[in-house]
Design a protein that fits this description.
By secondary structure, this protein is α/β, with parallel strands linked by helices. The protein has 3 domains: about 55 residues, Arc Repressor Mutant, subunit A, CATH 1.10.10; about 160 residues, no CATH class; about 180 residues, Vaccinia Virus protein VP39 (Rossmann fold, 3-Layer(aba) Sandwich), CATH 3.40.50.150. It contains 17 helices and 14 strands. The chain is elongated and about 95 Å long. The termini are far apart. This is MT-A70 protein. Belongs to the MT-A70-like family.
Length: about 500
């Protein structure tokens, strides 16, 4: 941040809060959200990838505002204590959150203390050192009796984090390793004396101002990484994201990998990640197909848990509805209400496997209703492809020209391979007869998921033109002619 970028009083207050609490939540306050975006551009804030109103302080913010923010808790009165003659205080598990200095660094600190004296005490909690291991060791090397003070608060974890995050210039990867130790407290932390130390991943990530993904990566490294790999990340030499990928190797191979130059390590980690994702994606695809083969498919009935991939052109009930015929005027097929659609594939009636993907057509004015239906079917909206029909239509507020294919997932459905070409979010093709969608969309679904069994709802095989990709044997169909009357009566 340049000197010309001066902060307003409110912006300075927001940064101070973020430094103090580890996060600033703007909520629905649009003015604060705008200020957060400006602080992001100044390099003082970093936005949460999942919550647009949540921001974390950067190292630059900590360095600039470390002295201005209020402490998370008041520092207790320093009661001078000392260990028994000729002995040292043992180390509390909390002290292990932050690594010891190297031998050379300890010697430098020892020389500094010998010249200037010990400025900060070694903190004791329940008879053990919770902060100041390096200072104590440096004092002994300098031949100086360390100064101790007793911590009497009720949140030793918060106290240790407050002292060290302000004093140390840690990278995000180093903070992630600290957060992982907090989450995995059962591996050495005495929970009965740690107060709020046994934190879930999100809370640990918040307190260390990092992403949850970084904490998950650090946890994997602590569980599967070699000692050399852990030390390389603790020292700041390797990023936690690269370390997580290297941790999938055997321990000896990990040690060999981290001996390379930093650029080579990053390239190796990327190669390992791509290979692992490719194997995992293929394994999940095979498993989903095996589960789908156990599903129930009977002629004339809605299948049950038999398909991992669905394609649906829903027969929306239009406003020009005829009570006499039960059909929308101009439509050549029966329509359905939103409530009927929600019940059609909900719960045990679902034709889809637990891990599945759904492509669902909707018009712009039906977008909210489409979301209601797909959520009732157990899916979550991911993204969409828009069809530009070229010829403009009619409309009450705007003249219609587009429809949207919603892409939805549920469970652990595998993502698309990194190197597979993704379809564009906008496709243009002149519309033909009413409700007929371009075959391009089905061709893209087949290209992206060639081994998946697919079910197209509200479609008849006989209506497809010769050469249509959906006639390749991987596609199955269900429409109103296939026993829909019974299903609708049962729903009512």
């Amino acid at each position: 941040m340049s000197a010309s970028q001066k902060l307003s009083e409110r912006m300075a207050e927001m940064v101070s809060i973020a430094v103090r609490d580890g996060v600033f939540d703007a909520g629905k306050n649009e003015n604060d959200r705008n200020r957060c975006r400006r602080l992001d551009s100044y390099g003082l804030f970093r936005r949460d990838l999942r919550d647009s109103g949540r921001y974390y302080p950067t190292d630059a913010a900590r360095e600039r505002f470390a002295g201005s923010a209020a402490e998370p808790q008041s520092v207790p009165e320093r009661d001078t204590i000392a260990p028994p003659t000729g002995e040292r205080f043992p180390h509390h598990a909390l002290a292990d959150l932050f690594p010891m200095l190297s031998d050379a660094e300890l010697n430098e600190l020892s020389d500094d203390i010998a010249a200037r004296g010990q400025e900060n005490p070694v903190w004791i909690f329940q008879g053990q050192i919770v902060d100041g291991r390096n200072r104590e060791e440096a004092c002994h090397r300098a031949g100086i009796v360390p100064k101790y003070s007793e911590y009497r608060g009720d949140d030793p974890l918060g106290f240790v984090l407050s002292l060290n995050l302000r004093r140390r210039h840690l990278t995000e990867s180093q903070r992630a390793m600290v957060a992982a130790k907090i989450v995995d407290w059962e591996r050495g932390m005495n929970q009965s004396s740690a107060g709020s130390a046994n934190l879930p991943t999100r809370e640990a990530a918040r307190r260390l101002s990092i992403s949850e993904r970084a904490v998950v990566s650090a946890k994997r490294i602590r569980e599967h990484g070699s000692l050399a790999l852990i030390q390389a990340i603790d020292s700041g030499r390797i990023k936690v994201s690269a370390g997580a990928e290297i941790s999938y190797l055997e321990r000896q191979a990990q040690d060999e990998a981290i001996r390379a130059e930093e650029r080579q390590i990053a390239a190796r980690a990327k190669e390992l990640r791509n290979r692992r994702l490719s194997i995992n994606r293929a394994s999940r695809t095979n498993m989903i197909n095996l589960i789908a083969q156990q599903g129930k498919v009977s002629a004339g009935e809605m299948p049950r848990a038999a398909f991992p991939l669905g394609y649906c052109d829903f027969p929306w009930e239009q406003e020009a509805y005829s009570n006499e015929t039960g059909q929308d005027k101009g439509l050549k097929y029966p329509s359905m209400t939103v409530d009927e659609g929600m019940r059609l594939c909900a719960g045990e009636k679902s034709p889809f496997t637990r891990d599945a993907k759904l492509y669902f057509w909707t018009t712009t004015n039906r977008f909210r209703d489409a979301i209601r239906i797909i959520e009732a079917w157990g899916f979550a909206y991911v993204t969409a492809i828009t069809w530009d029909k070229v010829d403009i239509g009619m409309g009450r507020e705007v003249r219609d020209r587009t429809e949207h294919l919603l892409i939805c997932k549920r469970g652990e459905f595998p993502g698309i391979d990194l190197y597979t070409a993704k379809p564009p979010s906008l496709y243009t093709e002149k519309k033909t007869q009413h409700s007929r969608k371009p075959v391009w969309f089905a061709e893209e679904i087949e290209r992206l998921h060639p081994t998946m069994r697919k079910l197209e709802l509200f479609q008849r095989r006989e209506s497809l033109a010769q050469g249509d990709i959906r006639l390749n044997g991987q596609w199955h169909f269900w429409g109103f002619e296939a026993g829909d009357a019974q299903d609708r009566e049962a729903a009512e």
